[in-house]
Design a protein that fits this description.
This protein is mainly alpha-helical. The chain is built from 14 helices and 5 strands. The strands form 2 sheets. The protein has a 3-stranded parallel β-sheet. Helix 1 (16-26) links the parallel strand 1 and strand 2. Helix 8 (127-136) crosses helix 9 (150-167) and helix 10 (210-218) packs antiparallel against helix 13. The two termini are 27 Å apart.
């Protein structure tokens, strides 16, 4: 059976971009393979973060997973830090990726460029090693990711091939999957940059009330002219709204363009807002119920047990391959 793994960092308020790019699609994998979905809280520590903020975001993310349609009977949902094998495998595999490779990672270069050298932590530099461990521990065949994470899966493939060449075929080499529509939702205030959890005006947060979501869509930047047409270079604002609509309605961009043929911008934005509210209303109601009854806690406890069983088998396999002594004699 195909094994699918993905996760999200609890580093900020999740946005409509996170929902369209990841959350909305996780449930679609449940009937086509064995699904592992985790909360990447250890990754959240690679940059400064308030402890309460991290704790609250972790709870929110667990509830968002369940509200989006993930079924704990079909998927293993867990917190990364609750499975110690992630950290243990990281301490081994960090020796098989090299400084030059890690320094070329796009996300590291972008984030470190905004920081003083004295403030750059080892965890940020070595982020791809831990992400590789997240993937390899579960023998994942498919890793659904956003476009900005493809490079991390590629370096995971390089690492797995390097280990297998040296020690035999002990790790599954994963493949990535990027959603064709909605893989990259842009800011409503500046459609040339990604919706990224940090722009209150340009981001639609999943915890925004429905009226706020509607207002943000209605005030979204559009473009010169009046034609509703997908053209990322010349009409990035309209193209972004078309992408949002097509993703929520699960149609192609071409179908969305045809639907809005002859629309004025105001009417176009109003219908996009209707689509957002129609989808987010039931989602937010489910989230509020899950947060209130704290049902996510039992789901995470069960997920921890299931994930640990699988991860520990891979960890043992790697430990044995590299020559670490098993003092239990297994």
């Amino acid at each position: 059976m195909t094994r699918i793994l993905s996760g999200i960092k609890p580093t900020g308020q999740l946005t409509l971009g996170n929902y369209i790019g990841a959350l909305k699609h996780f449930k679609d994998f449940q009937d086509s393979g064995e699904v592992f979905i985790f909360i990447a809280d250890l990754h959240a520590l690679t940059l400064p973060i308030d402890p309460k903020f991290l704790n609250d975001n972790t709870r929110d993310l667990a509830a968002f997973y369940l509200a989006s349609g993930l079924d704990p009977k079909k998927s293993t949902i867990f917190v990364q830090s609750s499975v110690s094998a992630h950290s243990e495998l990281n301490s081994i595999l960090q020796n098989y990726l090299y400084m030059g490779e890690l320094s070329r990672m796009t996300q590291f270069k972008e984030k470190s460029a905004k920081m003083k050298d004295s403030a750059i932590g080892l965890g940020l530099f070595a982020y791809p090693v831990l992400m590789a461990c997240d993937i390899l521990l579960y023998d994942a065949d498919i890793v659904p990711v956003g476009e900005d994470q493809v490079q991390h899966v590629e370096i995971t493939r390089d690492l797995a091939n390097r280990i297998n060449k040296r020690y035999g075929d002990i790790l599954v080499v994963p493949n990535y999957k990027v959603n064709k529509v909605g893989a990259r939702i842009m800011s409503l205030s500046d459609p040339t940059v990604k919706m990224s959890k940090s722009d209150p005006k340009g981001d639609i947060f999943l915890k925004d009330d429905l009226n706020t979501m509607r207002k943000k869509i209605m005030s979204a930047v559009t473009d010169s002219g009046s034609e509703v047409k997908y053209d990322k270079e010349n009409k990035p604002g309209v193209s972004n709204l078309l992408t949002i609509y097509a993703s929520l309605k699960e149609i192609s961009i071409e179908e969305a363009e045809k639907h809005f043929e002859g629309y004025r911008y105001g009417d176009f934005k109003r219908e996009v807002a209707d689509a957002v509210v129609e989808e987010m209303g039931p989602f937010k109601a489910r989230y509020e119920e899950i947060i209130a009854n704290k049902s996510y806690l039992e789901v995470l406890r069960i997920g921890q047990e299931r994930a640990s069983q699988v991860a520990n088998k891979t960890l043992k396999r790697v430990q044995k391959a590299v020559g670490l002594l098993d003092v239990d004699g297994e």
